[in-house]
Structure formats: C-alpha cells, structure tokens
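Bumping with the actual sequence this time:
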Amino acid sequence: MKRISNTFFKGLIAIIPLILTCYLLLWLADTGEMVLANIFKFFFPNSWYIKGFGVVLGLAVAYFFGLFLETLTFLRLFNRFEGGVLRIPVFKSIYTAIRDFISLFSSEQKGKLKQVVLVNIPSGYGQQIGFVTVSDFEEISHTFIADDQIAVYLPFSYAIGGNTVILSRENVVEIDISIEDALRFIATAGVVGYVNDDKNNH
C-alpha cells in the first residue's frame, strides 16, 4: 500500500505543475485576448476580428513600444510620464514593485546582477541568498557608502519585491550557481532546487 501511495504522489507531483502551468498560461492568454480584442475592435471593423488577434496586437504593441524606447526623444517622454505616475502614492508602490520584479528576468537586468552571494544575517540567525548589484562604487557617486562596502539585492520568496542592503564585503560569501538557478530557488523558497552541471557530468 505504501508503494502504491508513493507512486501515486510521485505522479501527482509531476503532473500538477504541468497542469497549473498550462492553466495559468491559458488564463493569461484568454484574459489578454479579452482586453486586447476590444482595443482591436476599436481601431478596426468587427468583421476583421479573428480570435487570437488581440494577443497578436499586444505582442506587436510591446515590440514597437520597445523600439520607440530605444529613441532618445521617446525615452525622455516616457521617463517624464513615469515620473508623473510615481507621484501618485498608492499607484507608485504597486507600479514600482511589479516593474522591478519583471525587470529581474530581463537580459539587461541579469547583467546588473553581478554575483550570487550568501549574506550573513546578524546575530547568527543564518544566511540569505542575494545578488551583488554594485561592487565598485567608484563608478557611481554614492558618498554615503564606504570603499569596503557593496550593494546586495535580497528578493522575497513567493512575493514581489525585495530589499537592497549596503554591507561590508566580509559579510557575504560568493556561491557558484547561476543567476537563473538562484532566482528559481528564491522564488520558490527552496522548494525547487538548482541543477549542478558539474555533478550531472560525473
């Protein structure tokens, strides 16, 4: 009986993430389609609409918006607009949290996460995984930071956001895992581990 239950739960653990992932992707696509379809119908005749055009429109808008952001004029306008948005108290908190969380998974932001480290928590209560964001403050004029200090970003598990701490280099230990594996480990509170390529090759 124990063997049957173990086999059952092994299959359950394997299939539930697949089902939930597919469901989430379909839900996001369906929600996006419902919203973007109305935008499509606003600019084009209803007879032109085919299910799926809303998502296509959304992808196209995102791509061209990214192209516009590469131009200095449009970038200045967007920064000015964003600056005005950030003056709204409640909106600012939600907007910045979502923006910062999503930016963690962009290729540009991963380049800013220089190294995965373990940060020593005060009073000997353990260690926390973080990412070094600034290791050489000579590049940036931060007068409140000493030469032997670095900036480390500490993301939250199962939540959006995190903390940035300034601490001495002696309080961190570099660990040899990739940014992607560390993000996956933190996001799932350690439930999903990381793949050690060196071990797999033996």
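The tokens above came from a reply further down the thread. Residues 2-43 form the longest helix (42 residues).
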